[in-house]
């Protein structure tokens, strides 16, 4: 782990790619839940599942890179802000990690393959773990529809607050 004050360029790129992927996956998940018919839901879920294969690979990379690089020293002014940033960033990564595991496990524990846009399928015979199927589904749905969106809103508001306050500090020192 490297002690640093700021995120590296790779970390910043990872962050924004993750933002795009997560918003896309959440949009597809919410669209499937609100689909007007089973056919539309199945179609949307097929895209969610296929894209999820690549999201799994990227999130695995993202978490591994963050563990390798570590987190920068916090610039927040108070202990509560540092604690909230510490918990918030790690919780976001943990929830993303759980989502990219529970999604495939939800399918694979029912002996379903992961069809990746018709290009190829990933089949892992885990039907012997079928007792985990309902738990995987529950975790994936609860985290994906409720916990992650709530945490994203909090993270976004905290980022806006951090940006505004750091900009205000910069402007006040210029006077």
In N-to-C order, the SSE pattern is: HHHEEH
Query: Class in CATH?
Result: Mainly Alpha
| Count of beta strands | 2
Q: State the shape.
A: elongated
Q: In terms of per-residue confidence, which ranges show pLDDT below 50 for 5 or more consecutive residues? A: none
What structural class should be given to the helix and strand makeup?
mainly alpha
- The quaternary state of the protein chains shown equals single chain
Q: What's the overall average pLDDT, rounded?
A: 89
Q: Into which percentage range does the β-strand content fall? A: under 5%
How does this model look, in words?
With 175 residues, the protein is mostly helical. It has a single domain, classed as Up-down Bundle (Fumarate Reductase Cytochrome B subunit). It contains four helices and two strands. It has helices at residues 9-33, 38-69, 79-108, 133-173; strands at 114-116, 120-122. Strands 1-2 form a two-stranded antiparallel ribbon. Strand 1 (114-116) and strand 2 form a beta hairpin. Helix 1 runs antiparallel to helix 2 (38-69) and helix 3 (79-108) packs antiparallel against helix 4 (133-173). The protein is elongated.
């Amino acid at each position: 782990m490297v002690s640093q004050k700021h995120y590296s360029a790779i970390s910043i790129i990872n962050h924004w790619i993750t933002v795009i992927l997560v918003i896309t996956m959440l949009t597809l998940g919410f669209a499937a839940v609100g689909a007007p018919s089973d056919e539309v839901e199945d179609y949307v879920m097929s895209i969610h599942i296929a894209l999820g294969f690549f999201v799994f690979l990227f999130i695995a990379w993202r978490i591994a890179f963050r563990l390798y690089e570590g987190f920068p020293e916090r610039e927040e002014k108070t202990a509560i802000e540092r604690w909230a940033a510490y918990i918030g960033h790690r919780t976001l990564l943990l929830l993303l990690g759980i989502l990219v595991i529970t999604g495939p496990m939800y399918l694979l524990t029912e002996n379903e393959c992961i069809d990746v846009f018709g290009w190829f399928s990933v089949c892992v015979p885990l039907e012997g773990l079928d007792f985990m199927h309902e738990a995987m589904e529950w975790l994936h749905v609860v985290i994906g529809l409720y916990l992650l969106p709530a945490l994203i809103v909090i993270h976004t508001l905290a980022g806006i607050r951090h940006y505004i306050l750091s900009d205000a500090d910069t402007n006040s020192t210029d006077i």
